[in-house]
Amino acid sequence: MQTVQLYVEGMRCPRCVREATARLRDLPGVTTLTADRGSGEVTVTGDVSATDLLDALAGSSFTAEVRSVTPVR
After folding, report:
1. Per-residue b/e over 8-40, b at no fewer than 16 CB within 10 Å?
2. Whole-number average pLDDT of the chain
3. Torsion-angle region of residue 35: left (phi > 0), alpha (psi -120 to 50) or beta?
4. pTM score > 0.85 for this model?
5. DSSP class of residue 58?
6. How many Å apart are CA 64 and CA 73, to the nearest integer?
7. With 2 labelled, which of 12, 28, 41, 68 sits at a CA distance of 20 to 30 A?
8. What is the CATH number of domain 2-71?
9. DSSP secondary structure, 13-48, as one string
10. What crossing angle do the helices spanning 50-57 and 14-25 adopt, rounded to 10°?
């Protein structure tokens, strides 16, 4: 299990937060997900790779980058 922190460009309004998190929360392996529209950061914990998270946002109006990946013990 790991925690992946993403920066999601363009996630500034409640509708954008709902849209971005909807693409991520149902991915296999996602245990928890939190989003902060003020900072544009999304934190995901679970057995899901950073690549899978980025792929889930591909083709949307958002651009995402991985800020950190931390193993959870």
Report:
1. beebeeeebbebbbebbeebeebeebebebeeb
2. 94
3. beta
4. yes
5. T
6. 26
7. 12
8. 3.30.70.100
9. SHHHHHHHHHHHHTSTTEEEEEEETTTTEEEEEES-
10. 130
